[in-house]
Amino acid sequence: MTHIIIVGGVAGGATVASQLRRLNSDYKITVYEKDRDVTFANCGLPYYLGGIIPD
């Protein structure tokens, strides 16, 4: 089994992990991210800051 380690879980790391999973579902994929949240969508940030989306 191929084990792939990705350092960095924001947009780039999450995209690579997703593409690798689509490429081969047998890959073991580990993503390391120093922050609490692995990734987030910047496009929704104005809605959150404007109080439209609750915490």
TrEMBL record:
| Enzyme kind, highest EC tier | oxidoreductase
Record has Oxidoreductase as a keyword:
yes
- Per the UniProt record, which EC number(s) apply here? 1.8.1.14
UniProt KW Nucleus keyword: no
Instruction: Please list the GO terms describing molecular function.
Output: CoA-disulfide reductase (NADPH) activity
Alphabetical keyword list = Oxidoreductase
Classification via InterPro entries? FAD/NAD-bd_sf (IPR036188)
Q: What is this protein called?
A: CoA-disulfide reductase
Q: Which organism is it from?
A: Staphylococcus nepalensis
